[in-house]
Design a protein that fits this description.
4 strands, 4-stranded antiparallel sheet, elongated, Alpha-Beta Plaits, about 300 residues
Length: about 300
């Protein structure tokens, strides 16, 4: 096809948008709504997963060592912990550090009424355990990791937030399934709407198409304007969706960042920055819009033009 012919057919496709203003507007509106909801669902799913991972990293697995563990045992335990998979990081807490931490907690309780409760427990009288505070990388493997840690030399017992980890993993899986399921449903809805829009255009131009066939127009020559129309609907919807979702996401980040404390402050640190999100958001909207618009047009043309 010559360049002039391609430009002519492209103009024809774009002019179809103006001829069918009402249906084009409805298609753009529906596709934009679907893409916006899809983008929100995807961002929610990704950020919930990130938030769950962040919370999981705040809950340490504590590996308590034997009360009579000497320095050699402590060093051996440290080397053994290094060899365990699924450990992100670990920190050693000596018996003396544990005692000082406990004294600090007690001093804050009841306005310091029991601040001297642990006086005299220093040195050999210290009843607390030396320990390693371990951060788990993958919460789904926490139980297996805890079992491995329990069997290390010099370890007395391991304290882990297994129930919380299970709840966080379940929440993460539920949100992911619901979010991406919604994405799939909305993609199908968008395809149906655009397909119906192009079908109406095809029906309105059926006599013109028959004449074009009689004078020798190829199938590609007839299909291209409809593909251009569907793709244009997808691109316009993608641009509108990107603007709406970007504005909403920036507003959420600003609102959360204004919270000085509480769980919302933790949420802020786990939110993906807009700088990290916008390339994927823009690219995802553009690709989705073009694919849905183009495929919806091609599907309608194939089924209803019979060219």
């Amino acid at each position: 096809m010559r360049g002039s012919g391609f430009r002519y057919l492209t103009r024809q496709g774009l002019s179809n948008l103006r001829r069918n203003k009402l249906m084009s507007f409805a298609s753009i509106g529906v596709l934009t709504a679907c893409l916006v909801i899809t983008g929100i669902a995807a961002l929610l799913s990704i950020n919930v997963s990130n938030f769950v991972d962040y919370l999981g990293a705040q809950n340490k697995v504590i590996v308590y060592l034997n009360l009579d563990a000497d320095q050699a045992t402590l060093d051996e335990a440290a080397e053994a912990i290094k060899s365990v998979d699924n450990i992100l990081e670990y920190t050693f807490v000596s018996k003396e550090d544990a005692l000082e931490e406990t004294k600090g907690w007690i001093a804050e309780y009841d306005n310091g009424a029991y601040a001297n409760a642990l006086d005299g427990y220093e040195g050999e009288n210290n009843p607390l355990y030396a320990s390693y505070r371990v951060t788990i990388d993958d919460l789904t493997q926490m139980e297996q990791t805890v079992q491995e840690l329990s069997q290390l030399p010099g370890v007395d017992f391991v304290d882990s937030p297994s129930e919380l980890a299970g709840a966080l993993v379940s929440l993460k899986n539920t949100v992911n399934i619901a979010g991406w399921g919604l994405v799939a449903v909305l993609a199908v809805v968008s395809l149906v709407v655009i397909s119906n829009t192009i079908r109406l255009t095809v029906f309105a131009r059926r006599k013109e198409i028959n004449i074009m066939k009689f004078v020798g127009a190829t199938n590609g020559f007839i299909r291209l304007p409809f593909l251009v129309e569907g793709t244009a609907i997808g691109v316009i919807s993608a641009v509108l969706s990107f603007g709406l979702v970007s504005g909403a996401y920036l507003a959420v980040i600003e609102a959360v960042s204004a919270q000085g404390d509480g769980w919302l402050s933790n949420l802020y640190f786990s939110l993906l920055s807009y700088r990290a999100v916008w390339p994927w958001l823009g690219g995802g909207f553009l690709i989705s819009g073009v694919l849905i618009g183009g495929f919806g047009s091609a599907m309608s043309v194939r089924k209803h033009l019979k060219v």
